[in-house]
Predict the 3D structure of the following.
Amino acid sequence: MSSDFNIISETHDKILVLRTDGYINNVAGEKILDEFSKSFTEDMNKVIMDLEKSKVVNSIGISYLIDIIEKLNERNGKLVFTNLDPTIDKTFNIMGIFQFAQKAESVEAALK
Amino acid sequence: MEQNLLVEKLSLQAESFQEGFEALIKCNSLEEIAKNFGHLLRGNFILSSIHILHKLSIDAEWKYLSSQKDNDGIDQSLLSHNKQLSIKYLTDKKFSVIVVLPLSDSSYLGIFAGNKLDGSNWTDFDKITLQILLQVFSSAYNSFLNQKKEKQLIFELNEKILQLNNLIDADIELSRYDKQNVLFDLAIERVVSLTNASSAMIKIVSLSDASTEKQITFPSNSDLDFILNNQYKIEFGFEFNNKQYLFVLSEKETRKGVTAFSDLDKLLLQAIGRQVQASIENEYLLGQSLEKERMEKELNLAAAIQQRIIPKQLPQIDGYEIAGINIPSKEVGGDYYDCIDLGGGKFALIIADVAGKGISAALLVNTLNAALYSYLEFNLPLTDLADKLNKLIFKSSPSDKYITFFIAVLNSKTGELDAVNAGHNPIFLIRKNGDLEQIEAGGIGLGMLDFGIPYEGKKLNFENGEKLFLYTDGIPEAMNICEEEYSDEKMIEFLKTNSGKTPHDFIDLIVKDVRKHVGAAQQSDDITSLFIKRIK
């Protein structure tokens, strides 16, 4: 199974920013979860997930994002999605993601 | 008495059992439940340590969930291998209790409880309390499992709603005309998302030579062979306009790995595929409609050009009666007639027919008309005029366009007729005795070739009572629904029978006769005629 998915993580104060690039499917979902587990430290309270370069996500990918949301909830952390493609925005809405996570126009807006 | 005391003590504990249960059911994972249960046990029994393990089935490996001290010294072999609840109370050991608790999903909880900090043994009350707490754990774990199932069910329901919504949205998007350039990219993204396909491909093949016109994959770097040869693939295809469109999805993803696509996935692929098909067909039909509109506009313009150069009124020729008509067909054919006053009692009688239809034919006639008016000013011999017109039309028209042309210059005072027929139908001069004299002398149609072959002219005398009939092939070649032509013979017969009429009446009658023959069939070519009668 080929994948052209990439993820970059960076830290701003106590905020972890994850930037995805490519189709968020099973393989990508695992990579996101791995990166989150590796990069999210105890002193962090917020994760920003920038999906500007990801235009397609399937339900398996969404299940991994839900896993991250649940892990964050355990630690009273927040997840904010940014730069959502309108189709993905609608998808997250229907899947109830925004009951447990937030969205913002951009990473800069989410960092404020 | 002792029993009553026990019951009384347990009753007092009821609230704390309830609180313990409520704390456990708020946990989001088995690890969290185990950790909190460990706290509960330690708090109730003031234990030195507590270690909680879990295995997925009777034969699986034990895994640590929670340890409040080091795991050193834990001998997992002490955990019972039975399927029933096992509680072992130990003395003189590192641990005071070892428990194996079977759970509702056939997994097992293992507990190593350290000694009580006060060094005391486990009382009956402690043992009953432990049993109750194990029951509390069981119930909390069932609740956790049910919550998981409920979440999974909600996820699956939402997924179905999402699929339906995405399908509707995809259908709307794919049907939009402004998305044509991204139609296939959009379709492939949508169908992959809808079906959880690992990868997908759309291939367009020309049916005439089997060459691949276009190939798109998602993700973009997907291996084509992997997709096409995958054991878990589904396909959908259709043909349109001499092309074959093939959609292939490969490998359905799940959290546990890849699997075959379901019947629902096949339906979803078909739905998207059919929408793409509809979009392509609609685009084609729109193109056809726009082309038709463009052609209609072009024809209207051509008709307007043609009508502009057809004379609205013919000049009066002293001693002669003249009438003319041009009835354009639905598709403008490029017929032209005219009677030009050259001065000094001389008139040029012209009839022409451009091969071909549409705006190009109309423009060519326009060119002819303009050139004619220019050249006639120079009073050239008709043969030279024809030669010049031939060269001009040859240069200005495409190779498939030419003009059949007849011109006769009438000296109205003497009746002298000087004529050249450049590839046109034979023109008829009806003599006083009723004989029909055909005027064919001339040469090839204007614009056909430019080999310098000279045109021939013919001189005739147009006597009093004689008539000259000019026409285009729209009359003899007019067809009825049985595809029978009006014919030269019928036209000649009509000419012989009706040439005594006034030019105006003759024209009127021949048009009626042609229309009667054509009947319900559509007029396929312009009907053009010029009729002149010498009356003095």
Notes: Chain B is about 40% helix and 25% strand. The radius of gyration of chain B is 51 Å.
